[in-house]
Write a structure and sequence with these properties.
Distance between the termini: 19 Å
Helix content: 25-40%
Largest sheet: 6 strands, parallel
Strand order of the largest sheet: 7-6-3-8-9-10
CATH class of the largest domain: Alpha Beta
CATH superfamily of the largest domain: HAD superfamily/HAD-like
Radius of gyration: 18 Å
Number of helices: 9
Number of domains: 2
CATH architecture of the largest domain: 3-Layer(aba) Sandwich
Strand content: 5-15%
Shape: globular
Order of helices and strands: EEEEHHHHEHEHEHEHEHE
Length: about 240
């Protein structure tokens, strides 16, 4: 249960909106691994997870292609967004010579839990994935049918941290009726700018935990949870 000055807090939104990567899906062996593989390919240097988290924590880098482009360029290897995207795809999706990191994807929540939440709340998704990336993982997942709307990178004109995706889901409804759960600074910025309550997923022990936690709170995070399975503990029935 979230706490403030020693008192437990329960949130009662009507609408639960989830980010995907790092919230519903463990992406350490997929997107993170692909980013590191791509950086090594582009620069010849062996990047570290500490460096990865440093770059992921910068606003605008929720998009891994943009992050890789910015990161490689900063090291003296000018890389366009398109070049980063194309190089990244070879590691994420794989080639004839090697399987893709996408095969390492693991879901962090069960369909049964999603169904339980769907009985109490409207469920939606706002993800920085492309529609192709989303469908690969979720097209056959039993719980996908419980989400009323799914907004991907392909469905918005302006990517996160712009809140366009949240506005598409709300469709003019009161932002105070919604809660967005994400794991990235861009998620927190989008929620703040949309006027939507935000809960951050941040596992203690991750690189830069204290700095990231402080930044989340600075951006208005209502609370931080170590993983999505803790969400039920801070939710009450919508009024």
């Amino acid at each position: 249960m979230a706490k403030s000055r020693g008192k437990s807090i329960a949130f009662s939104p009507k609408i639960l909106i989830f980010d995907v990567d790092g919230v519903l899906v463990d992406v350490r062996g997929t997107y993170w691994r692909s980013a590191l593989d791509t950086m090594k390919f582009l620069t010849g240097k062996r990047p570290t997870y500490r460096e990865l988290h440093k770059w992921k924590s910068k606003p605008g880098n929720n998009d891994d292609w943009a992050m890789v482009s910015n990161w490689a360029t900063s090291l003296g290897f000018p890389t366009t967004y398109e070049q980063a995207r194309d190089a990244f795809a070879k590691f994420y999706w794989g080639t004839d010579a090697r399987p893709g990191n996408v095969l390492n994807e693991k879901l962090l929540i069960t369909p049964r839990q999603i169904e339980r939440w769907a009985r109490r709340f409207e469920l939606d998704l706002f993800t920085g994935r492309t529609r192709q990336e989303f469908n690969y993982t979720f097209e056959r997942w039993k719980a996908t049918r419980f989400f009323r709307s799914i907004v991907t990178m392909d469905d918005v004109e302006i990517k996160k941290p712009h809140p366009e995706g949240l506005f598409k889901i709300l469709k003019g409804r009161d932002p105070a009726s919604a809660l967005y759960v994400g794991d990235n600074i861009d998620d927190a910025l989008a929620a703040r700018d949309a006027g939507v309550l935000f809960i951050g997923i941040l596992l203690p022990g991750e690189h830069g935990y204290r700095a990231r936690a402080a930044y989340f709170r600075q951006l208005g995070a209502a609370t931080l949870l170590p993983r999505i399975t803790y969400l039920s503990a801070v939710l009450s029935h919508p009024k």
